[in-house]
Write a structure and sequence with these properties.
mainly alpha, single chain
């Protein structure tokens, strides 16, 4: 008996998950531009109708890719959020983890994909904000809040998270996305050392009088 129109294959979810993993790898590794649905299909060795069958349309596919990146990042965010011995140590550990992400090209390119797509499409932008950018900021905020001697006030934690994360985004843009590593390389170690010295003490609340 033929399958009713609109019915899913018994292995729909498995095939969709495998396709999504393949397309996520393509999205992060590809040039900094918005691939067409056809380019996504070619990367997955599938037809455009097949991608529409599993993801609806290009926007739906991009949203699922961003969500997939977010799901993969949860283990990293959980590690980032673990408390340290004091605020300078919390920042130092955060910077070391980010340095490793920069050297592997993943940190900059995952956010670049979300930004490029999100700035072009407000619907996708909201997903990127909620699924990738905000959890990235929140992970360091949670780390600092859980660290002995760290700030507890939400506004202070928000400012601290932005102050710590902002330079890392700019460094990723400069070194990875604009090819500064080859043309104008930055010695990351002293930059991180200065950031740790300047910001680490700033994140420690003054003793109560």
């Amino acid at each position: 008996m033929p399958r009713p129109s609109g019915a899913r294959n018994h292995d729909f979810d498995e095939k969709r998950a495998n396709l999504l993993d393949t397309l996520t790898e393509f999205a992060v590794a590809t040039a900094l531009k918005r691939p067409s649905l056809r380019q996504f299909a070619l990367a997955a060795r599938q037809s455009e109708p097949t991608l529409r069958h599993y993801f609806g349309d290009r926007q739906g596919l991009v949203i699922e890719i961003i969500k997939n990146i977010g799901a993969r990042a949860r283990i990293i965010w959980a590690s980032v959020a673990a408390p340290a011995s004091d605020p300078p140590a919390a920042l130092s550990k955060y910077l070391r983890m980010t340095e490793a992400g920069l050297s592997q090209h993943g940190y900059a390119r995952t956010h670049a994909f979300g930004l490029i797509e999100g700035l072009a499409d407000p619907v996708v932008g909201k997903v990127y904000l909620e699924v990738l950018l905000e959890p990235s900021l929140q992970a360091f905020s949670d780390k600092l809040s859980a660290t002995p001697g760290g700030p507890k006030d939400p506004d202070t934690l928000r400012a601290a998270s932005l102050a710590a994360t902002g330079p890392l985004f700019l460094l990723g843009l400069h070194q990875e996305l604009l090819n500064g590593r080859e043309t104008l390389p930055i010695n990351v170690e002293p930059v991180f050392r200065h950031l740790n010295n300047w910001l680490g003490s700033a994140f420690t609340p003054p003793p109560e009088s």
